Amino acid sequence: MYNAKKASYKNIYNVINEKGGLFKEFYGNKKRGNDFNGLNISFPIQYIPKDREKPFKTTDARIRAMEQFPELNNQFYTVCNSDNLYSTKALSLLRKTEHKMLL
Fold first, then answer.
1. How far apart are CA 2 and CA 17, in angstroms?
2. CA atoms of 71 and 65, how far apart (whole Å)
3. Mean pLDDT for each consecutive 10-residue tract of the chain (103 residues)?
4. Is 53 helix (H, G, I), strand (E, B) or coil?
5. CB under 8 A, 24+ apart: contacts of 58-61
6. How far out from the chain centre does Cα 17 lie?
7. How far apart are CA 53 and CA 95, in angstroms?
C-alpha cells in the first residue's frame, strides 16, 4: 500500500475472501471508501466455492471485483498479486503506461 501511494495510486481494491476480517480491522470496516493514510480502500469479496478449500486464482478475483464494483468496467486499472512486493518504480511505470490491456 505504501509503494502504491508513493506511485500516486489513490483507489485500492483489495480482494479478500469472506473470512478476511483482519484486513478490514486494519484498513477499515466498510465495503468501500475506507480512508487509510490518504488511500481509498475498498474490499471486493472472492468467495471460496463449497467444493474447494481455497479460492480460484487472480482472474477470478478480478472478475469478482468487477462484479461488485461496476465502476471498474469503465476504467483502466492495475492488477497486482498480494504475495509480491512491487517497487514504487514498477507501480509508477504501470500506472503511466500507454499500453492498455482490454478484456
1. 22
2. 10
3. 94 90 91 95 92 87 94 88 89 84 54
4. coil
5. 61/15
6. 12
7. 34
